[in-house]
Amino acid sequence: xxxxxWTHERRKDLYTKVIKEVGAFSTWTGARAPLSKKEKYDALLxxxxxxxxxxxxxxxxxxxxxxxxDWAITKQKEMKDQSHVRNFILNKAAALEVGFLSTADLxxxxxxxxx
Length: 115
Description:
mainly alpha; two-stranded parallel sheet; 2 strands; globular
């Protein structure tokens, strides 16, 4: 059975640490990163990837951590498949729960293309 790396608790931990180190998404000056704290953000991605690697025993790159954040902050309204919808929903849920996002950061609607 395949082990789930990105659990809800791990995502909540991710977004809680992002808030602590570089602030909630609403305070960021860039679309994908807090430009005024870019060096700190990049170091945080490395720290989180190392933490999650130790916790899971899996190779988790800083880019993989950033990809989870990208799913939370995307404004994308159309998804090409259900795996994208799943990542979108799970990351937004964790980010909302800990306060990284607010409901104002959510799109008004979504469209899923049939496969």
